[in-house]
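Handoff note, outgoing to incoming analyst
You'll be picking up this chain. Sequence as last confirmed:
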Amino acid sequence: MRVTGGTPPTGDTQVDDCERRRWSAWRVGLGLTLPLAAVVLMWVLLAWRRNILDEGGTVFVGAAPLMGRWRLDFKPEFVVAVVLGLALLVWWPPLVRRLAWNRLLPGSWLVSLGWTLAINMHGGWRRLGAPLDSRQDYLYTARNTVTDPFDFLRTFTRELRTYPIHVQGHPPGPVLGLEALERLGISGASGSALVLVGIACLASPLVLIAVRALVDESEARRVAVFVGLTPSVIWVATSVDAVFAAVAVASGTALALAAVRSGAWHGDDRARSNPWAGGAMAMLGGLLAGLLAHGTYGAALFLVPTALCLVVLARHRRWAPVGLALFAAALPTLLMAGAGFWLLDGLRGTVEAYHDGVASQRPAGFFRLSNPLALAISIGPVVLAALPGKRRVGAWILVGGALAGLAVAEMSGLSKGEVERIWLPFVPWLTVATGAIPLRWQRGALGVQLVSGLAMAVMLGSPW
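Most recent structure output, in case you need it:
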């Protein structure tokens, strides 16, 4: 049943909670076991790290499995986060059920933005932009290197080794984006950071739109309680990778809408008379995918849910939206190539720099365990426990697509540490798993997520 707005009917809620979403004892037990297993594995990891250091090796991860250092520092500013967390715990779950759909979407963005800022403003306004001020980040290059964007593109691959480490690891898109903000008058790291976090938090309402399109509104409202409130908000406010997450989610959402509007999903035969239905959304999704590829070389892995929506269109022979999406996806690459930057040359140079850098000193086996643990911390215990839950096909396109991308990322060996930041684009889609949590458990589960995020902010000194 699709709810078009306002308060969902009580009967529908009861059916969802008592019949369609009934969790068996073994599934609940499995869900509770996963976070406990993560804690045990973390202790194993810490012992392993000590052993590596004792033998003269290094992992360059001070708060294994996370980058930074462990410490206990409850600043007075955290009181704001505590008060906001309590308010969310009391009012957000019932508001999610009562708000009209067109109010829930901006509400989700505001909640995500508010919680992200509350968690990250403990050092004041300057702390918010401090990571962007690092000499190793993109803003330093945008300010001190880019005078002519076209010349920067032409020489980017040739001069790659002269750039800071984060710039070496990505296409030129992030540097050009921040340089554009400077030209628009948004100067200063804190101003840029505020723009970036505002964009990043758009992932929350976009996820809800995708879930509503591929599953139903009831499922989207369940997810709305948790999306944007994972412990990963610690890195959302201070990393361009969170913007990549929003772009990846926007691309997947656009293709999901294209599949629905073209009749390839939910079996809407009426759309077959118009082969161009969903074409605009398909073009938008393809264009965003092409832009993402010039922001991060991991775009192909972050866009697996987008690709699955494209497969749905192809299976139902909706060739017009498929063609438009592929054409739009190729446009950024063609334009960048015309300006002097070829994506594959940049990727080749980055892989060489990666293997010549600290990655060559980091033991691969250690990070086979470290990376999944870092992701588990990032998504929080509730999302981790919800992943084994039973869900409908539309939700599996999003959650399963993210898990498939994660598996390839882990097997590639091109992510040795720092994945709490690098893998941020997977987090919004994984949060869709919370749609399987029964309504009567939502408030308690939300409390666990909020406390986890606040605890991480108090205990972890992160460079981002």
